[in-house]
Amino acid sequence: MRIHPITLPTPFEIGPVNVYLILDDPVTLIDTGPKTPEALEALREGLRRAGVRLLDIERIVLTHTHEDHCGLARRLLDEAPDAEVHVHLWEAGHLASRLAYEEYRALLLRAGVPTDAVEAMRGLYDGMRRYTDPLEPGQCRELLDEQELEFASGSLRVIHTPGHTPGSCSFLREADRTVIAGDCVLKRITPNPILAPDPIDRSRRFRSLEEYLVSLARLRSFAPTLVYGGHGEPINDYEELFNRYLRQLRERQKELLRLIPKRGATAWELSFALFPDVGEAQRFLALSETIAHLDLASAEGKLAVEMSDGREIYVRSAVV
What we know:
It comes from Pyrinomonas methylaliphatogenes. GO terms for molecular function: hydrolase activity. It holds the Pfam family Lactamase_B. Keywords: Hydrolase. The chain is α/β, with parallel strands linked by helices. It folds into two domains: 2-244, Ribonuclease Z/Hydroxyacylglutathione hydrolase-like (Metallo-beta-lactamase, Chain A, 4-Layer Sandwich), CATH 3.60.15; 258-316, Arc Repressor Mutant, subunit A, CATH 1.10.10. 36% of the residues lie in helices and 21% in strands. The strands form three sheets. The chain has a six-stranded mixed β-sheet. It has a five-stranded mixed β-sheet with strand order 7-8-9-10-11, with no helix packed on it. 41% of the residues are buried.
């Protein structure tokens, strides 16, 4: 089983995205890149260099369903009609609609986001839909945790690694402890935990950072020798990166707790204090990270949460 990385351009601030061609039977593509002419052409060229055509792809596996990772899935099915798309159940709904608007609106209002800012965010993220085409439920097969994706010469084990998104998955080749991790693990940056409804109870918020820390520890338990991420270079020293992530996360939480005024504050207010220089287009990501840290601090007893006019107000605990 040969893993062949292909780097594709994206129109997003994160920069190029990595997708992975598995040269074995069945020919498998892990992630697709965004739906842009530039990404499609780069994918064709990357496949050609590996001696593969789009028509030869028999299986498409998605680490998660952000546009830079899944956007071309529908287009690939048009050219490889016998291919199957595999994705975790908690991501499948995302393929049908970029945002379940009313669910996200409720989460944003609870976080203290003004109604005009909620509408602005909706406009920005509605624009993201042009980078992906929806898939019908019948076009996807479900990825299950601990499932084996079989190949002629081996297998990849599915590792559910929620955090960046609820249904994010990584893939482990146990023979040499190689992991394809999507956006769970990136060499140069700490992945952003994205605000999302809880997949079990969609009236609640998914506790992204708590789940992410568990996912990082789970990957660590496999002692990976090589980790392929969704962006940037491969990682050869997971232990060093794991400890760096933990250190950065604790430093960010400490900074956030220091910024909470005595009267308390909403997540929206604190996102401006924590990320004062972020532009409008990135404000949702800044808010997502702020909420993730607040949820973790609250779970650890460092914060109290009070409700006021339907908004969550965070107040520092006396023990902090």
